[in-house]
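Cross-check.
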Amino acid sequence: MAPLMFLIGGTLAALLAGRVGVRWLRPWPVPLRVGLALMFTVTGIAHFVGMREALIDMVPPALPAPGLLVTVTGVLELAGAAALLWERTAPWAAGGLSLMLIGMFPANVHLALNGTDIPWDDRLLPRTVMQVVFLAATLAVVAHHVRRTEETTRREPAKSLSGEGF
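Predicted model, tokenized:
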């Protein structure tokens, strides 16, 4: 539940800052990217501090080197969080984080089905809903970039083939 709170809280704080005068936070995708960056920073840090052993235990037994997998995904979350904050790398980071969310989902299922005395928000249905929200947020960043690129391409005049300018 904490990652969801960081996503929502970070996004709302950035939206508010944009409304009260921080110009670069005004377009809606930017506050969403800030919220995602905050969420992935917190979850990335948790791969190394505080929850490391619990995250290693979440890795399905069929996967090799659970400690290494937790380390790699933590590094990727932190790198993705940083890349979300730069407009040029944000869509690529969001796309990569989307794939990682999908790839890590089996660990959530494994915990929900095999964990003992797990909190309600780690059970399968709430966890699945949260993962869908996280995935929707990352894909919204990608979709915005794709739409903006298509609009820019449509607005640019076609290059002349007449040889002018040579």
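The first helix runs from residue 2 to 19. The mean pLDDT is 91. Passed to J.P. for a second look.
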